[in-house]
Amino acid sequence: MRRICGYLSLLFMLCASPSVEAQATTETAHPSEDPYTALRKEALRKQDPTLYYRKKVQWEKLAERAKVIKPINLDEVGLGGWFQPLEKETEKSFYVGSIQHMPRPKRKWFLDSFRDADWTGAPLSRPSVLDTMRTAEIRALLQSLFGSPSSTIFDVPPERRRSELEHVQFEYYLVVNDTIPVMIMDGLGPKGKGVIFAGDWADENVLPLIKHELIRRMMHAVDPKPYIDFYYDPDVDLWYKTGFDGNRYFTEQIKKPKQVYERPYFEEQEPAAPTTGKG
């Protein structure tokens, strides 16, 4: 009798073990990926948790979508065979209409209105013709297209001007189609090339098109307009006056400006002192 019970117990364990093993495998299985990809994801999770979890949601959505979408002809796309290029889909549904420049008096309104924006430059980092131009030349085109910047070095509190992220020469704040915020700013002041574009992660699919349109308008500006900016270099603790006078681009070392509430001006444009009548 004991022998029969032993056989039955052994038979039950043999039948049950495959299902238990399958359940454990199902619970611990990870989507198939090479070890290097897993290591990169783990490194990203430690370095930038916010970006990691935002991308994690995207990875999960793509994985679910891949289960129900049939592969398509690789020759027609070039994105792994699963999805149509975002650029083609976007071009059909998005059009850059109005581009509003926020002048300095509207700087606070812009920052308050888009304070929840998740600013990024990633969707706008594709090389362009502007990367071959000096920042000073691009600044003159922006002056022609939009006028004076929305923000300059004097809009940064003095205690933060030594920060590597705060010694800006100029920033332009734009609103595209009444709802999409975009920033254009210098990277290394008058010494550098190109400019930096930034936008909200929520608009990542259309930001490349916006950048393309902005570049098109800049390159078709009638001509570069004269301008003058202050620039502070924290590496050497020196101030400069830099700009375009209509004939040449210049960068001149100066003493620390005293008027921290006004933009610089050309000497011949200095406003005359007010006159008071007597008698």
Structural commentary:
It is globular and about 55 Å long. The protein starts with a helix and ends in a 25-residue tail after the last strand. By secondary structure, it is α+β, with helices and mostly antiparallel strands. It is built from 7 helices and 9 strands. Mean pLDDT is 74; it is low at 16-31, 67-91 and 268-272. Strands 1, 2, 3, 4, 5 and 6 form a 6-stranded antiparallel sheet that branches.
How do you describe this structure in short?
The chain has 279 residues and is an alpha+beta fold. The protein is built from seven helices and nine strands, in the order H-H-H-H-E-H-E-H-E-E-E-E-H-E-E-E. The strands form two sheets. Strands 1, 2, 3, 4, 5 and 6 form a six-stranded antiparallel beta sheet that branches. Strands 7-8-9 form a three-stranded antiparallel beta sheet.
Radius of gyration: 29 Å
On the 0-100 scale, what is the average pLDDT?
Answer: 74
For the termini, the CA-CA separation is 132 Å
- Work out the helix count: 7
What tags apply to this protein structure?
279 residues; alpha+beta; six-stranded antiparallel sheet; three-stranded antiparallel sheet
List the helices and strands and how they pair.
Layout lengths: L1 H27 L6 H13 L1 H20 L17 H8 L5 E4 L4 H7 L5 E2 L14 H12 L4 E2 L17 E7 L3 E6 L10 E5 L6 H13 L7 E7 L4 E7 L4 E6 L25
